[in-house]
Specification:
Low-confidence stretches: 1-12
Largest sheet: none
Shape: globular
Helix content: 55-70%
Distance between the termini: 80 Å
Oligomer: single chain
Structural class: mainly alpha
Strand content: under 5%
Amino acid sequence: MSVPSPSAGPSPQRARSAAAKQQRERAILDAARSLGTERSVREVTLTDIAAAVGMHKSAMLRYFETREQIFLALTAEGWEEWSAVLRRRLGELADGDPGAVAAVIASSLVARPFFCDLLAQAPLNLERNVSLEAVYEFKTVVLGEVAAVAAELCRLLAITERAAVDVIATATSMAGALLQMAAPGTRLRTFYESRPELAHALVDVEPQLTRILVALLHGMRSTEMSTPGGG
């Protein structure tokens, strides 16, 4: 009678209860967050995450269908956390000064480089390698948080909901793009810094994002005040 040879590597028992499954999923998400914070999200593989939690890569597929679903779930969590902090900070402003609002939005995003990295990766690849059900779940979370932030912007700035949503879309997409351009902590960034003739390639994300948002907010308020019915 032949005896099956043991497989190499760790082989933890499958989670047998809902609570155990949630605990295992949380461990996977936390490992992916840690790895994605240390490197860029695009450099983290499913094998990397599996090794960090002591699981076979195939076993991880019982909890998440792809590495992209793992990071998409973290993106949804990032939206919830950022939205809560941003709405609290906006609520502390004395008035709806566009400069102050822009500064709060920009600083709240720049303080979350991992979230900004996810914002850049989500539409490029994370949403493209998961099931439609996973996309629906993700978009439902995001749209809910966008609506909550938009309501606060409407209150502060006296702009329409559509304008507020455009502000959020601009802020989050630009934060993701500018972070990629800035390439913090990389050899590319060091190279830019070492060559004076490439100074234009050095992106300082927070002030640049703030300037963009100030211009956008002033433009929106001017347009809506000059449009009958508020646009």
